[in-house]
Protein: FAD-dependent oxidoreductase
Organism: Thermithiobacillus plumbiphilus
Amino acid sequence: MQDTVLIVGAGPAGLAAAATVAEAGKKAVLVEKEDILGGAPIISGYAKLVPSGEWAKDAIGRMVSRVEGNPNATIHKSTKVTKVDGEAGNFTCQLSNGQSVKAGSIVLATGFTHFDSINKPEWGFGTYEDVLTTTQMEQMVAQGEIRCPSDGRVPERVCILLCVGSRDRQIGREWCSKICCTVSTNLAMEIKELSPQTDVFIYYMDIRTFGLYEDKFYWKSQEEFKTKFVKARIAEVTKSPDGRLLVKGEDTLVKRPIVIPMDIVVHAIGMDPNEDNPEISKVFGIGLERHGFVDRAEQYTNSQGTTRRGIYVAGAATGPEDIDTSIAQGQSAGSRALADLYGAAQQAAG
Ligand SMILES: Cc1cc2nc3c(=O)[nH]c(=O)nc-3n(C[C@H](O)[C@H](O)[C@H](O)COP(=O)(O)OP(=O)(O)OC[C@H]3O[C@@H](n4cnc5c(N)ncnc54)[C@H](O)[C@@H]3O)c2cc1C
Ligand code: SF4
């Protein structure tokens, strides 16, 4: 009989799954490929999270401590799973550190990969120092000062371009990344708070601050922090002779070309499928959906199931998700994996 659940990935989803299993008195073995725990919010240095406003290092840090402090949890950092044998109730998993783990069930919480803005070269990333991604801008906010990377001046104007690497059929990314509108409206307020003399613009196709976030982020950013929203299609970002950035495109409300000088341009990057997914699919014998995220078994009666019995999935591994949902899915997948251990025990007893 197995009393262990193997969890792969120690972001918000994996940490929630591990805590669910360990707090129920079963063994959680957590395998993380990086040498730190916490997933994207920690690895990429997010600043204050939406919607809580809490610093990522504190909020996710609490999730890490809860798992690290539980004697039922074993953690393997800088490690991957290289081979999975057996079946639901009795898996044997080989780890890249030479150890092997016997587990009754498995939870995949392997998350996503940030879109690489280099794949959108016409928008200036990689060419101009003052074109940044949201994660880079969050790191600047976390340091407490807004300055142009090129020469250290305080920016007169910052603009955030939404949907970079999302909702873009030309580069094969048809999905909405769900959280970047909310993250960007919040970032606009953080920039304004730190640098009141800076005007912040958001260039958008649509604003998707879903659910309660409409009021808390979209309207607040516009009304209290005076963020300027421009409905536009952006063609390119170039440099003017005076060194400022020129954002060229079309204002799609009045159908006129626009060219506005900016000091910093921020790409609101989206969420790609984890670049490891082809390897994960092979090692764990699970299917991927057509965009490359992990496929799910059945939407309503087995929402956290993958296409292989005994292997569950949670969080942004299944598609763009926010942290709250990733945690809820982690708990749900952890519970399903836990229930399988009892199923295996009953089979062994019968
Ligand atoms: C710019 C940006 C800002 C964001 N800000 C917010 C915010 O303020 N609030 C919010 O709710 N959401 C935010 N999000 C979304 C948030 O990042 C995700 O909801 C969250 O990270 C998903 O958690 P996860 O555990 O599913 O995946 P991840 O955080 O991606 O964690 C996955 C973990 O698995 C590990 N891993 C991957 N592959 C393997 C492998 N093969 N073997 C072992 N380990 C592996 C990774 O190293 C990582 O530690 C933001 C997203 C972006 C792009
Ligand atoms: S959440 Fe907003 S910025 Fe992100 S892809 Fe969707 S519409 Fe674009």
User: Anything to note?
Assistant: The mean pLDDT is 95. The first strand starts at residue 4 and ends at 8.
